[in-house]
Amino acid sequence: MKIVRVEYEEDVYTGIFRDNLVFIPDTVSPDKVINVSDARLLPPAVPSKIICAGLNYRDHAVELGMEIPDEPVIFLKPATALIGHRDHIVIPGMSGRVDYEAELAVVIGARARNIGPDRILEHIMGYTCFNDVTARDIQKKDVQWTRAKSFDTFAPTGPWIETDLNTSDLGIRAYLNGGIAQESRTSELIFGIPSLVSFISSVMTLLPGDIIATGTPPGVGQIKPGDEVIIEIDGIGKLCNHVSKGHI
Predict the structure, then answer these.
(1) CB within 8 A of 65, min separation 6: which ones?
(2) Dihedral angle over CA of 228, 229, 232, 238, nearest 10
(3) Taking Cα atoms as reference points, which of 14, 72, 80 lies closest to residue 47?
(4) DSSP string, 134-153
């Protein structure tokens, strides 16, 4: 099942996406049906926080010549960085190098605190595509990653949440202007989803709607104004965003 959030005629709805239609459940009358071409797809979740995992693909660690971490490396993005399918990624004026990073994201469905890996699936609503947009020059300059990861529009997410998905071996790809730029499989994850989400729940309470980005494979690269970047994950679909120049 694909869960979507849409803006339609100045209202926001959460519904089920099927055959290019959005079915809005109604407990009183028959479901409202919206043609997706008449609506704007919004980020499919409203998180209190976005938690990201760094260096979580074996092939990416090899690419960087770095040691496999003993435990997950995590950082935060603010919810204000969130944008949806076909929204624009805006390049801030203070950065000369902004990169795409294709990632599988987990969306939390039930409050989780100190949950073991064997029970973590009970707390997951589903999965979506995520682009961990990063001002790479600022990341290197600052050493810590907050500013480089936190600009508005730096967390494209969508286009929907897929609730029924085996994530153990999914293809994950990024396309830049139609050409393939990243390609790997989730079987390359160093810390799989149950262990990663369990670890994060031992650090902070996870709330419904929270997004966990699980790390990026090798091949990250620069985006510039006018570019189109697509994140594709098997079983979910494609998240598409164009790039424009900002005034920050």
Answers:
(1) none
(2) -50
(3) 80
(4) EEHHHHHHHSSSHHHHHSTT
Q: What does the pLDDT read at residue 247?
A: 63
Strand order in the sheet with 171-176: 88-91, 237-245, 228-233, 171-176, 179-185
Q: Which amino acid is at 35?
A: N
What residues are paired with 127 via a beta bridge? 106, 162
Q: How far is CA 139 from the centre of its chain?
A: 19
Measure the CA–CA gap between 56 and 19, rounded to whole angstroms: 34
Q: How far apart are CA 8 and CA 18, in angstroms?
A: 17
The per-residue pLDDT for range 179-236, each reduced to its tens digit, is 999 999 999 999 999 999 999 999 999 999 999 999 999 999 999 999 999 999 999 9
State the SS3 of 61-103. Answer: HHHHCCCCCCCCEEEEECHHHEECCCCEEEECCCCCCEEECEE
Structural domains in the chain, sorted by start: 1-41 (2.30.30), 43-245 (3.90.850.10)
Confidence of residue 64 (pLDDT cuts 50, 70, 90): confident
76 vs 58 pLDDT, higher one: 76
Express as a percent the part of the chain with pLDDT over 70.
98
In DSSP terms, 183 is beta-bridged to: 173
Long-range contacts of 38-41 (CB under 8 A, 24+ apart): 38/8, 39/6, 39/7, 39/8, 40/6, 40/7, 40/8, 40/84, 40/86, 41/4, 41/5, 41/6, 41/84, 41/85, 41/86, 41/158, 41/159, 41/160
Asked if the model's pLDDT at residue 28 lies above 80, the reply is: no
pLDDT per residue as tens digits for the range 152-172: 999 999 999 999 999 999 999
Cα 206 to Cα 183: distance, rounded to the nearest angstrom: 29
